[in-house]
Design a protein that fits this description.
About 50% of the residues lie in helices and about 15% in strands. With about 140 residues, the protein is an alpha/beta fold. It has one domain (about 5-135): Methylglyoxal synthase-like domain (Rossmann fold). It has a five-stranded parallel beta sheet, sandwiched between helices. Catalyzes the formation of methylglyoxal from dihydroxyacetone phosphate.
């Protein structure tokens, strides 16, 4: 079963809630995770159950990052606010770096989130199998 994380900066929370409402049927049956307030707002607007971590500035980004580092996350939707400085910017950078290091698809804006979720809905979300095929054989 796929593990999906939702994160949104304050001025993007309404956007992520609307996004998840629009694709609620795609997210049903998946293991869903989120930082605190984002997860609460999504659960209030949908019938989805979400494992909520701490708020981002209080360590929630790092908790999701730990799942990424343990190869236990399949997709991260992180709607960032590029026009507002964040007090926990080092944590955000670390989370995105972990996605890059471990090859985890991450959407940081609505356009990329749409593309990834539509692929998930079509059943075209087999990136782990592709990564395995492309890995050089160990000798």
């Amino acid at each position: 079963m796929l593990n999906i994380a939702f994160i949104a900066h304050d001025r993007k929370k309404e956007d992520i809630v609307n996004f998840v409402v629009a694709y609620e049927q795609v997210f049903q049956g998946k293991n869903l995770y989120s930082t605190g307030t984002t997860g609460q707002r999504i659960m209030e607007a949908t019938n989805l159950k979400i494992h909520r971590f701490l708020s981002g500035p209080l360590g929630g980004d790092q908790q999701i990052g730990a799942l990424i580092a343990q190869n236990e996350m399949d997709l991260v939707i992180f709607l960032r606010d590029p026009l507002m400085a964040q007090p926990h910017e080092p944590d955000i950078t670390a989370l995105l770096r972990l996605c890059d290091v471990h090859g985890i698809p991450v959407a940081t804006n609505m356009a990329t989130a749409e593309i990834l979720v539509r692929a998930l809905d079509r059943g075209d979300f087999a990136w782990r199998e592709l990564v395995e095929l492309l890995k050089p054989e160990l000798k």
